[in-house]
Amino acid sequence: MMKIKHTNIENALEYFENKQFSDKSEKEILNKFPEIMSYLTSNQFSVLSDDEYMILSFNILILLKTLMDTREDLPEITDELIELNETKNWENLEKAGNIPIEEKIYLLFGEDNKDLAEFILAGFSDEEDEDEDVEISIPAQEIIFISVKTIFDCFRD
Question: What is the 3-state secondary structure (H, E, C) of the chain?
């Protein structure tokens, strides 16, 4: 069972903070996962605003860095695996019914990955930057969540 803890997320955040979250540090991670880079640059995300896309990219980078730091045996990721997991996750989101997005995120990630779910939810309401009024729509939140969950599932045992 793959479990991402709060301390793992904090370590990944610190890594990017020390690197001043540059394009170089971003590419350093994504170059190790070309299929994920291709997924992130696909047209399906053109419906997201720039701010929403930045949140998506940031969440996936933190996830990847966390996985790189905590697992020695990262599987090869294929386009087919991404597509399979994405389809499954959209179906599971639909099955969750008409409940708040927060409950959907906790439900689909499960109790073992509550910390990761909380990290994603925190990105939807940036309390640290109260000056910047970034509104993340519910459909965008679902896209971001499903995309991160999709990548997460690609690395499950």
Answer: CCCCCHHHHHHHHHHHHHCCCCHHHHHHHHCCCHHHHHHHCCHHHHHCCHHHHHHHHHHHHHHHHHHHHHCCCCCCCCHHHHHHHHHHHHHHHHHHCCCCHHHHHHHHHCHHHHHHHHHHHHHHCCCCCCCCCCCCCHHHHHHHHHHHHHHHHHCCC
